[in-house]
Write a structure and sequence with these properties.
elongated
Length: about 200
């Protein structure tokens, strides 16, 4: 008789197990999707950051060897940043050449050329109104004309700054907007190099 009762309960027990598995899946699936979306967006953000850093360094390296600084350098940098549209509304490139002081009458460094591309509303650090033209105190001092040597330590430097408004590619930002998109629908990434 006991054997006969266990057969009757078995199908009912399998239904309970299937039902609880469906409930567990329903509870775990949203957390799993958040995890997957988070990994995808994090990977995309890291890739975007690496592209910005590489473009900025290469632009600085090329710019410091150009005499005079070419107005086409920001365009070359933007084309090498694909798939990021640095010339578009979500990107910005600013290339600045700062020349050394030339005489005892004009000992201070000055901005000799500056070229910009892209529509993102940001301001570069190398501006005439910035303290020490946006350079560190030690670097600025090496550009100041030295009357004892009758020349500055450096003839000039090239400052390259690149910005891009990163936008997540998964729908995760709709659920956690303040965390993933604090800057009006995107996260502004920035890279700067001085050569």
């Amino acid at each position: 008789m006991a054997h006969h009762l266990s057969r009757r309960c078995a199908p009912h027990g399998r239904l309970d197990a299937r039902g609880s598995a469906i409930v567990e899946l329903a509870l775990a699936l949203p957390m799993f999707m958040v995890l997957v979306f988070g990994v995808v967006d994090l990977g995309h953000a890291i890739n975007t950051r690496l592209i910005l850093t590489n473009v900025c360094r290469e632009g600085g390296s090329i710019g410091c060897r150009q005499e005079p600084l070419s107005a086409t350098l920001p365009d070359m940098m933007a084309s090498s940043a694909q798939p990021l549209a640095l010339n578009g509304p979500d990107g910005r490139i600013i290339v600045t050449r700062i020349g050394a002081g030339t005489s005892a009458q004009s000992p201070a460094p000055r901005i000799s050329a500056q070229y910009q591309r892209g529509g993102l509303a940001v301001t570069g650090s190398a501006t005439p109104s910035a303290t020490r033209l946006g350079l560190t105190p030690a670097l600025y001092q090496r550009l100041v004309f030295d009357s004892q040597q009758n020349i500055a330590d450096l003839t000039g430097v090239t400052v390259v700054e690149v910005w891009f408004k990163y936008r997540p590619i998964t729908p995760l930002s709709r659920f956690l907007p303040a965390l993933l998109t604090p800057d009006d629908g995107g996260l502004i990434m920035h890279s700067r190099s001085v050569f």
